[in-house]
Amino acid sequence: MRPRLSGAVGVAVVLLLASCRSEQPAPPEREPEEEPERIAVLRPTDVPEGSSGSLVATLDGEVVTCRGWGEADHATGAAAGCDTVFDIGSVSKQFTAAAVVKLQEQGRLRVADPLSRFLDGVPDDKRAITVEHLLTHTAGLVEALGDDYEPLSRDALVAGALAAPLRSRPGAHHHYSNLGYSLLAVVVEEASGLGYEEYLARELLAPAGMTDTGYVLPEWDAADVAVEYDARGRPQGRPYDHPWAADGPYWNLRGNGGLLSTARDLGRWLLALDGDEVLSERAKEELFRPRVLEEPGGETRYAYGWVVADTPLGTIDWHNGGNGWAYAELARLPERGAGLFWVTNQQRSAAGGWALDRLRPSLTQRVAQRLVQAP
């Protein structure tokens, strides 16, 4: 689930940039391998005492810092690092969207295709829904069919989606829908003939050099994965400690969220988006083209799995995600050659009076300012 956020935040980041410029931990037998920090973009005063997470920043085709802060596991005292595995929440949606545009480039689908091309028994009220409607949250679907961790199969999700009443006529309004992105995961499977995660791994993650991203990776040990905490600091377990199928989360979370990854891997993704190893320029134009207003009269538009804010001073491509415990955000400033991903395993603290998602504009702006001021 992606927390709602005012479009003014994206604009503020772009304004700031313009004015400034006019751990998956290593195995126990060896030390964690952190990227050398070329620019001190994260400082102790940037995050509240007691918080924890990881951050990676890229600039001009290079990773300039990749590091963690605080603890990935309070019980063991394990430090969060560049290779600590976190739940990246709805940041996952951009991978689903990238898979769709890749499939279109491969000639296996068109975003104009109706949902009925991939699913049988689509009722009359949903026969006008297209793949693009799902990508832009304009299909009129409800947000979800239940809790993220409800043990819902693919068949049950499809049946529930086809039976649920629409919130609005397809194409008429933007209604953020996790369900829509789960249906896109079904579309990816039907169009590719592969499992959703298998297609991502083969066509997106491997070409980007991402070795620690997915739903289930056999080499992960529990010590690699951050424990999540509620506002009182009580452990909520690791993502797969909740109801979880053998091959990843159940279908209320599949395709729309729940991917596990590291700061190091998200740095590789940011760099891949600046190149052509994974997606062609044409595919990236499709991915990032702003299409529908998120809110009437608002300042942000939804693209395919990304929120885009355009101003006279520049563009920011952005998405976040959270579940009340973990929170993640990824942003790229293509005109500045800069990118940033950060994630935390404790989104807020009642005792400390802080909430990292609310402090996010401050953290993001400070990091962005240091990036664009770098020599």
Topology:
Blueprint: H1 8-21, E1 53-59, E2 62-69, E3 71-73, E4 78-79, E5 86-87, H2 93-105, H3 131-135, H4 154-163, H5 178-192, H6 196-208, E6 228-229, E7 235-237, E8 260-261, H7 263-274, H8 281-288, E9 292-293, E10 301-302, E11 307-311, E12 314-322, E13 327-333, E14 338-344, E15 348-349, E16 354-355, H9 356-372
Antiparallel strand pairs: 1-2, 1-14, 3-4, 5-8, 6-7, 9-10, 10-11, 11-12, 12-13, 13-14, 15-16
Helix pairs in contact: 1-9, 2-5, 2-6, 2-8, 4-5
Could you walk me through the main structural features you see in this protein, from its secondary elements to its overall organization?
It is a single chain. This protein is an alpha+beta fold and 375 residues long. It has two domains: 8-90 and 211-372, 3-Layer(aba) Sandwich (Beta-lactamase); 96-196, no CATH class. It contains nine helices and 16 strands. The chain has helices at 8-21, 93-105, 131-135, 154-163, 178-192, 196-208, 263-274, 281-288, 356-372; strands at residues 53-59, 62-69, 71-73, 78-79, 86-87, 228-229, 235-237, 260-261, 292-293, 301-302, 307-311, 314-322, 327-333, 338-344, 348-349, 354-355. Strands 2-1-14-13-12-11-10-9 form an eight-stranded antiparallel sheet, sandwiched between helices. Strands 3-4 form a two-stranded antiparallel sheet. It has a two-stranded antiparallel sheet with strand order 5-8. Helix 4 (154-163) packs across helix 5 (178-192). The longest helix has 17 residues, at 356-372. The chain is globular, with a radius of gyration of 20 Å. The two termini are 38 Å apart. Mean pLDDT is 88; it is low at 1-32.
